Amino acid sequence: MNTQALSWVQGATWVNTRWRSLSLFGLASLLSLSAMAQSNVYPQKPIKLIVPLAAGSAVDNAARIVMQKVATNMGASIAVENQAGAAGLIGADRVAKSAPDGYTLGGFNDSIMTMLPNLQSKMPWDIQKDFEPISLVATVEWGVVVPADSSIRTAADLIAAAKKSPGQINYGSGGNGSPQHIAMALFASQAGVQLTHVPYKGATQAAVGVAGHEVQVAFQGMAI
């Protein structure tokens, strides 16, 4: 994927603060397991981890790395399944409605737990009542990416371009209410510029959209 990380030269105070906030809850594993302790030996069958985000996303990659190690340590079989859609709402709903036996886990990013419930008029699940948190297992650092041949090289360039052509700079995200969407909306608000949101089915598709010049910019998890 031919993209470059955008150097934050100006506006660093706000961007860095937001970056840490997003990273703090980059990936959390949640588990409906009220019945787990009822068995003398766990696990007795394969475990399934549902990642309600696109395959190849930062959260998905982190989940697969962690689960591979967990499976080795437990001597168990753990299958990772992606069920993207509605910024994580659909996959999380599947976890919420699974049997609470410890064999269905969910790998969630922070937006599913904090942002998404506040952006929906009606939620099919309650993040506090329908899930049992297990652990924060990883953090994902963030950056802003643009096409490699873009004339935008710094945050100052992005702000200047947006002010010159209000609403003409398009940014991609993993969907309405996704962390990429909220982060860029906050950036635009703080910078006093108008950017046009283009939601994709997942963060991976949004990154491909940037590389393919479908959109000019996006927030993305960075593999460092």
Topology:
Blueprint lengths: L2 E3 L6 H13 L2 E5 L15 E5 L6 H17 L3 E5 L6 H8 L7 E5 L1 H5 L18 E6 L3 E6 L7 H10 L5 E4 L5 H13 L4 E4 L3 H9 L5 E5 L3
Parallel strand pairs: 3-4, 3-5, 8-9, 8-10
Antiparallel strand pairs: 1-7, 2-5, 2-6, 7-10
Any overview of this molecule?
It contains seven helices and ten strands. The protein has 224 residues and is α/β, with parallel strands linked by helices. The chain folds into two domains: 101 residues, D-Maltodextrin-Binding Protein, domain 2 (3-Layer(aba) Sandwich); 113 residues, 3-Layer(aba) Sandwich (D-Maltodextrin-Binding Protein, domain 2), CATH 3.40.190. The chain has a five-stranded mixed beta sheet. Strands 4-3-5-2-6 form a five-stranded mixed beta sheet. Strand 3, helix 2 and strand 4 form a beta-alpha-beta unit. Helix 1 runs antiparallel to helix 6. The N terminus is likely disordered.
